Each structure stands twice: as structure tokens, then as C-alpha cells.
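Example (one chain per record):
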Amino acid sequence: MTSNVFQDRYARMFYPTARGYTTLKPDAFQAHSSKAHSLEGLQLGDLVLRRHSGLVHYVGINIARKANDPRNWQKLPKGYEPLVLEPGTDYVVDEARFPSPSVFSATTSASDAFTVLAVPRADAHDCEKLEFSTGATEGAYCGLPFGGSSHECTSLGLQKIQHFALEHGRSWYYQVMHVDSLDLENGDLAVVTGCEKASYWTCGVFASSGHGESLFKKRLVVPKVEEGIVQNIRMIENCDEETSPTLFDHYVQSARTDTANRFEKQTCCFAFRGFRVSLKSSIYNDMRVPKTTQEQLWHALPRFLRPPMKTWPVYPHQVPPYHPCTAISELVLASDTRIRTAVVHDNDVLTVLEPDEKIMPNDNELARRMIARYFVILDPAGRARLIDKSEVKLTRVEERWVKKILKKADTTGRRFVSLRRENADLLAITT
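Predicted structure:
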């Protein structure tokens, strides 16, 4: 298993560029018994969870498919009802986002960006050779010799999935943890609303040992696609192992690719966006099967006698893989004791990034930006979601009150300002 340090570096560098969470190994979505899943790849509405190994695991449930759909190969929650989508309404936008060929990359030095050289074929639009290199000491790369495509929910689709996730998120956790018996960190369950796919992909992270000048170079020799038969891409690495070693390097090809309809038959997903569902720590801990003596004693107590405890990690001695939504979900859950379920979307995070930002800011800076841009809406059932402040109209009295409380937040330690609405509370997080 690749060290989380380099997995996290890869995720931090590519999250803004790939518009979402970048999977460490794109073929991870195909390692399941469902034939429908292996042929289609990741689809909108899939329930996925992130593993400590850096892989992303499809749990065998798609909330937009009927119970008897081949894609729903896992045992479904009791009383399962799929998300209702009106016929004749467009909920998905598909586009060929990445040209052929395409390389996106990031380095720790802005002055040492990647240089890309693509040699086209004489008789086709495809690429014959793809080479990218940089003199930076640290960086990450992703090469798409045949380009890629993007699949995204419309705003109407996002709205429907968000309400569905808020309503059923708690039952999804119970299903995964108790019925499927899978280890799941709080906040690692997500429903997919957008993804980037490619037929071929090579990706990796490199770092220099710091002795002398370093030059990292990657070269791909791309095969021709003839009559639906695809040969393997040959990779020739030309890098000095002493000064610029590759820390991890993956390559994947799709089994279903042809020249006639290349974008439709891409099954390898290298980045996805979605709603990440998190639970109040006491609810999550109550669902967990106790492992340690402390957890067993806590479970043995009646609920009203249980002391408040932080969320128990699945692997207490390991640092979980990086995801920016983790810190935001924790911030939302801690803002009010009434919150039982919180939903945060990758788009919420992407909107606060600068246009030319290549690497994710640290969690404190990201939290500061989120607080400045979003309110938290809390309904009577304890379900919380984010809403842009520009979409909320405050009265003059409310504006003055919010400014007054926020101004005193540093001294009073108050974590939120609550504004009463007809069917929900509006929370302005202060710290």
C-alpha cells in the first residue's frame, strides 16, 4: 500500500484540477462481481466509500436505479425506494471535457511547470507518443493519451440527490456497517453526482531527494486502436532514481474502447464529485461494533448516561486519506448540538478556491473561506446542509445582529449565530 503521505499529496494537487476527489487507482471501481458495474464503470447515483488504502469502493447500491436493476447487486436497505426522477427531464450533462491527448499536472514550484510534448500520428487524430517532464523537486501527474469525458448532474439533479441524501444518509450507514459488515469512517460515505472518465490513464507522484538538479520525465508510446482491439500502452521511464524517484505510478486501460464511440465506452473513473454524508459522533459510535474496552463500556451504558465522545476512528493508529470535505463536515457538525446528519458537496469546496489555485489550501484556510461564503441550514429533523450567503436575504435587523455577534465571536467563543426561519434555522458559523 502506498504511503498516505504521497496519496494525500496527490489528492491535494489534483483536487482543484480534476474538479473533485481523485482516485488513486481508477480500476478500483471495476473490481466487483457485478457485470453491469464493470461494463458501465462509475455512474451517477452510486454509493461509494473511501478506503484507507486510497481506493474508492462501490458498495453495490445506486439510489437512482430500481431494486431489481443489475447494478444493485448488494442487499438493499429495508423498504428501499429509489430516487424518483421525472421522465422527460434532463438530470445529467455529458461532455468531452479533455482533448486527446491531455496531461494535467501540479508541482510545488510554480516556475517549474510540466513541459508536454505530444507527437500526433500521421494518419489519425490520435497521439503516437506523449512525453511530459519537469525540473521541479516534487509534483504529481496524470496523462490521458486518448483524452476523457465529464458526466455531471444538473442543478435540478443535485437538489434532488441532496434532499434524498439528507433523508436516507443515516440508513445508508447502517446498511454498510451492519448488513454489509464494512469498516467505514464517519464522513467517508458519498453519493456520486459527477465524474471524469477515460479509457487510458497513467498517474503518479514523484519527489526529489534534494541532491543536485532533478529532472523527472515520463514517456508513453501509445498504440493504435484498430477494429476495437487495443494493445497495451508501453511506458518508458527516463528518470534518475537517485534524484527524482517515482513514489507511486499506476496505469490502467479500459477493456471496452473503440474508435467509433470512444467517450461512451470509458469505464475508468479518475475523479468524482458527490455529496459526502456525515453523522453526529454519538450516532456513528452507536452504530459501530465496539472493538476496544472503552468502546464496549460506552456501549454498555444506557444512552442517556453515555458521556460525549469524539468519533471513534476505524484505524486509530493510521492517518485516514486526505479529503477537504472532512474538515468542513466536522466544522458543520460541531456548530450546533442539534445537528444529527450533515451533507457537504465537493462543489461547495471547489467554489471557494482561487481560479489559478493548483494545490489545496490547508484546513484552517479552507474553513475560513467556507465560513465567509456559506450559511448552514438546519431543519427540525437535525439535518444540515450548506447554502451560499448570496442566496439568502437577511433583514436589516438580522444583518446588524449577525455582524455584532461575529464581531464578538473571538471573545465570547460562540460557534454560531442562529436565525429562525419558517421551517428551518439558519446558522452563521463564527469559528
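Caption: Confidence is low (pLDDT under 50) at residues 28-33, 227-243, 255-264, 410-414.
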